[in-house]
Amino acid sequence: xxxNSTRDNSIRVSSAQAIKQGLSSEGGxxxxxxxPAVSLEEIVSLASRSYHDIAYFILSKFLTDFSGDxxxxxxxxxxxxxxxxxxxxxxxxxxxGHTYFLELWHxxxxxxxxxxxxxxxxxxxxxxxxxxxxxxxIILVATSGDTGKAALEGFRDVNGTRIIVxxxxxxxxxxxxxxxxxxxxxxxxxxxxxxxxxxxxxxxKKIFTDEEYKELLDRNGFKLSSANSINWxxxxxxxxxxxxxxxxxxxxKEIEAGEEINIVVPTGxxxxxxxxxYAKKMGLPVKRLICASNENNVLTDFIKTGVxxxxxxxxxxxxxxxxxxxxxxxxxxxxxxSGRDDRLIxxxxxxxxxxxxxxxxxxxxxxxxxxxxxxxxxxxETMEAIRNTFxxxxxxxxxxxxxxxxxxxxxxxxxxxxxxxVIASTASPFKFNQSVLIALEDYNAVAGKDEFELxxxxxxxxxxxxxxxxxxxxxxxxxxxxxxxxEQMENYVSDFLKVx
Length: 500
Ligand SMILES: *Cc1c(COP(=O)(O)O)cnc(C)c1O
What we know:
By secondary structure, the chain is α/β, with parallel strands linked by helices. The chain contains 24 helices and 16 strands.
């Protein structure tokens, strides 16, 4: 299997190369040249298999240059019971007769990004070994909260790698910030950037496209790579859990073989929902993909109108990991829907850079309409969803999952569609404890309480245990306190690597 760039079909690289490079040199994203088909028989045969087996089944179709042994080692190192607290890795929770939560947050940082970022470092070091390179890999991450910590945990002390994480100084929760600034490991660095997530992400993108700077790093034995969701090595592990969810529903007899399900995904960068789209494309029986946004509803408008327009106010919401106005992975989706039209994609992305806006041709719009639905939920509705779901069934959702639930409820009311539906549950409620508690109690209940008091309050209220990794934060001293201007990010990298 070879990989093309969304902006240049003549570029063809192996999966090891695509994973190592992260972004194609002209700015496009790597995509597989074709999508392997999975038959219904094969899907049915997954029903009794472990997460490791399902991961191997899917990943080996895409990472064809990895040896079977290497791939199995990557999977075994990433998805352990020790790290995920359960052999199921991504268990499905039944809320009622037609609604299921796919819990993607049992990993070490309590959010779904662990699903990809626990395995990416192993993909990367394997890829370096396969291509006989011995430069040190430098991972640069711009994060709206969860990616940063998940990447730090994934890469810490992995030989041959170093990692630098930038987060927006006012765009992450207290817990998220604490998780990052107390990170241990001898190859890690963390800095706040003055601005929002897009500022941090644009800063990182600028470093990636600065050829002179790359040469400087190269002379010093460093190779830049990305752990952001634009890296193919981030995206491909996410396809796995949609198959595993379907397999779970089959083995628990919730669905019949071949029965179509809906999937709802709380979306920011369009990565997680793109993986669901790829699963559908490969043959997973999916009827509708429902894209859920918070008040930063650029994707809702796009899916409804075909016009992507980021020229709008940026909102800081209670679901900060979705506070995004440029959804990078949408590019891969448009590339696919346009029949791999690299020229069109280059044009659209140039328009996005120049005008902050583009309109897709009508055939692409028709393709979207055939598969997708979309909706958004403001903070008030999201709070209501948390409260109503808890009161109705005792299930506690985090704010991101609640955006999806809120959008799903509105979808059902609007369409009457009672198809069995899997909602991607993307974070532990403890990670966003303050907002969750305000929803379940009120503002007064949380007033004046610190993060750790809130954790134990939520433990009592929800009946769930505080995840160990969060409880342990209390005794950690912050290590990283630097705040940089967005123009200073490159200097920060140079200082950390000691290059001039
Ligand atoms: C990153 C994140 C999302 C959004 O995922 P995308 O792949 O960017 O669409 C949703 N919820 C949580 C908790 C996240 O960390």
